[in-house]
Design goal:
single chain; 442 residues; alpha/beta; seven-stranded mixed β-sheet; six-stranded mixed β-sheet; 15 helices; globular
Amino acid sequence: MSYSATELKRVFELQSQQVWVNKATTAKERINTLKRLKESIQSRELQIQDALSADLRKGAAGTQAELSTVYTDIDHAIENLAEWMAPTKVRTSPMFDDSRAQIIQEALGVVLLFGPWNFPFSLVFQPLTAIIAAGNCALVKPNEMAPNISAVTAEIIRSVFDEKDVAVFEGGVDLANELLKLPVNHIFFTGSPAVGRIVMAAAAKHLASVTLELGGKNPVVIDRTADLKDAATKIAVMRTLNSGQVCLCPENIWVPEEREEEFLAIVKSVFQGMYYRDGNIVPDLIGKIIDKNNIKRIEGYINNAKECGARVYCGGEIDEHNLVVHPTILTGVPAVADIMQEETFGPILNVFTYKEIDEAIVSIQSQPKPLALYIFTKEQEFIDSMLERTSSGGVTVNNCLMHCVEPNLPFGGVNNSGMGSYHGVYGFRQLSHQRAVLIMEC
């Protein structure tokens, strides 16, 4: 479906007037909207399952994971929205002893929301929940690389919202570029750092604020006190989640050199048990890479790494017909290899060893700040040292990804891995303006 610049401008101008209405809505009114949204999603769960299966070969568990994260965010907002919206009283300084001060949460206005293709359902409706909770209007573009779930997403939005409140547009890069020309108040984008820079440049033309949820090469550091089997198993599972197409997946693994072979053997065994039957990979178990272009991109990373001297410990095979990359472990990957420059977004682990922990820390410090850091240890001192000497969007200790699941923690990146955070109250605040109010006595 194509939209003219005139049509996009018409809807934007409609929302630009509606923002003053939505800004004044009560917690009860916003909660009722969120309830209608949840009901619309619940009534289409089978459609959502079929669409995610068609686009990404996601099974029932993958679909349920996307649904549950959305339901969690909606329920959390419904439960807490009245408290979030309440003005915050501020104690004044002696200079204003006879005055009252407060901070009110004010809607930003029209928000442009771009959805990604790797979690094409949840990563539209989670930020949309925050946008609605904060009283904004929204222009939503689902990702064209997941066309089936894009269509279901559009159907859900249109069943709940009038276009003056939330409008949805389906299309590709040309549509995205036209939407970026609109002088919206805020842009919420989930995707790669490369496209994030384009979004930020477009926002700068209108001085729009941005939330950029990007990615990076998330490092894992395993110390000598860690339960290696537990660590290796969790890393293997999380690296291959959604066929490795997760911005939070562990990617660069640091393990004590004397435990490397043990670690590699455990991970390989987990891969074999999860995704292979009688020595053959089962495509339905691992899911698929989104398209052939990304298959070629990942294959290029593997081939280049081998040319640069890396060793393929296991995997490395490509099934282009089924859009499958076998779970792969690379060792001895040099810093100049292409795979060390960009987020892989595929089921590949790069395993490195250290004699002294400083080797791992110096390497992590030399890379752009990642979206996540994962630490496996039994020592609080080791945790404290890693937190002091590294930087990342978030951290999970003795597991991977889990900090993203906790609704009372902010989720977001830093610098190259993004800016701004959301989930729970942090999403509400991110999509609100904290307006300072000083009331002086006459």
